[in-house]
Amino acid sequence: MDPVPVRCLLNSISRYLHLVACQTIRYSPIQTRIGNVVHLLKLLKPFLVEVVDCKTPPDDDCLNSGCEDLDSVVNQAREFLEDWSPKLSKLFGVFHCELLLEKVQTCSLEITRILLQFSQSSANQTDGNDDLDSIIQMIGLVSNQDLLKESIAVEKEQMDQLIDLVSCIREHMLKTEFLEVAKGISTPPYFRCPLSTELMLDPVIVASGQTFDRTSIKKWLDNGLAVCPRTRQVLSHQELIPNYTVKAMIESWLEANNITLAVNSGGDDSSVANNMGSNDFNRTESFRFSLRSSSFTSRSSVEAGNGFEKVKINVPASLSKELEIFELSSQEQSYTHSRSESVCSVVSSVDYVPSVTSETQSLPVNHQSYSEMSSGTMMTSHTIKLVEDLKNGSNKEKTDAAAEIRRLTINSVENRVHFGRCGAITPLLSLLYSEEKLTQEQAVTALLNLSLSEVNKGMIVEAGAIEPLVHVLKAGNDRAKENSAATLFSLSVVQVNRERIGQCNAAIHALVSLLGKGTLRGKKDAASALFNLSITHENKARIVQAKAVKYLVEMLDPDLEMVDKAVALLANLSGVGEGRQEIVREGGVPLLVETVDSGSGRGKENAASVLLQLCLNSPKFCTLVLQEGAIPPLVALSQSGTQRAKEKAQQLLSHFRNQRDARMKKGRS
Asked: What are the distances in angstroms from CA 237 to CA 212, 226, 250?
């Protein structure tokens, strides 16, 4: 069976999650309901991937029907986001979101029920888990440190069967136990060290590409062990590279849940257990957990069932740049959407998934089981095979390899670093010149995922990425153009890359062309990339000369849903004389005054900044701004806007008064 309805649903979920990552709805009740929908879909998604990856997927009409129903609801939710405007009724928006949330809950529960029935007819996974629980109790693995010591001791004995057993115990603990860091709050499994199962306070990457807590892996290495505890791969070196992204995610999660870990005062253990008070643990360094059976391959279907039935979600404020959307493992969870508009307004953890067509259906979903690969367990032979296919394979093999790398790097920070180091970047760049549009699209999307890693950003540019990405911007299909612009945005986070991209006039002209003629998603990606480039002063004039201002002024129309991005970029471009001249020449003043009057908080702030630049640098422009009736909305903004907006409005009003006083004084004389 080729589970086409499941593939279609996965595609729709990925598109929706990416759209949520880029949405700018500021109304909290709607945000909360969107967060709840995202949480449910992210709980369900791994199980759908298991179905697609399964060698003998369930041939069930009920499952297909359920997936088709949920696919329809997800598309309705996506259309709501795409059509949303601050001018629409907020009551209607909340009511509509509530209906969509109920439909998602109902459909998700039905799909989960069907998958549970299928899992119960599969191999006796539950019995295996019960056996592991008995072994854990029998040998007295009651703490994180006990598990770490046992792992090291067994490894020294070099008995493969025992090593495999302890490895299974570690994976079992990560999947089925709750490690509480505070009362009622459990640590997400992907924040726990695969070696000790503790919360990673100082995550580091080893030579195999896996991430561990520094204290645990250092003990492992200090005992003379030179293989990766998880992949069994011989480590080519023992350098420990800080994983700043995961560390930032963990710190943000702790902050979002109001958790403060006490600093360890002594000893050589920096374990979480040592940082907890006695109230959080039954006894020193002991686990406090509840076991859950895992009955659908390697993931717990019971967890998903409970998650759908008992869900309570908050939507905390944005936490930090370039963090991924992620779900928290406890029953009462937080949906954390981390996003900085000035630094990361396009790239998210969810990449674009091509629509299911006759071409994409024929792509292999995977070369190895998802439960092994998505967790970061990269097999060297598998990686080498993919890179070799990129270089020397047939057209189909190249496309398949690019698609597989894209899939494996959607959510895995470790996999991004791993593929970057294994030589995937250069052959992926060569595929950007492919005449096969699907190959080109898969390659640029894989590069977009790789570019999210700080380690890879410099490597991609050094490999000569700018010209191939420009080629895609000019000759690719709509999706490829969008992802090429998003990749340039991601790379331009680094200052030296901003300078190099800006020096390529073709890159700026191609982005401006997409800004004016691309899809809505393409326009947003281009605007974000150009915004980053405009941070470098020399690039401002280049962007103006490429005729970007004309398109940006057109985007100040609220109906186009681009006001905030357009006015943010105009605020940067108004810092140069050419930019100010073009803003006035293209008729931007009336629309900027309108934005100060009725735009979003950020839009008002940036519009006031542009008007201030115009007025401070030209009495003629100042008169034009006054003629457009700017004083009333500026007075209102000076009293009720953001702090920065208030300052800009007050500066403008003060400038107007000074200009008036100067004219009056001149008239008297």
From this structure: 15, 8, 26
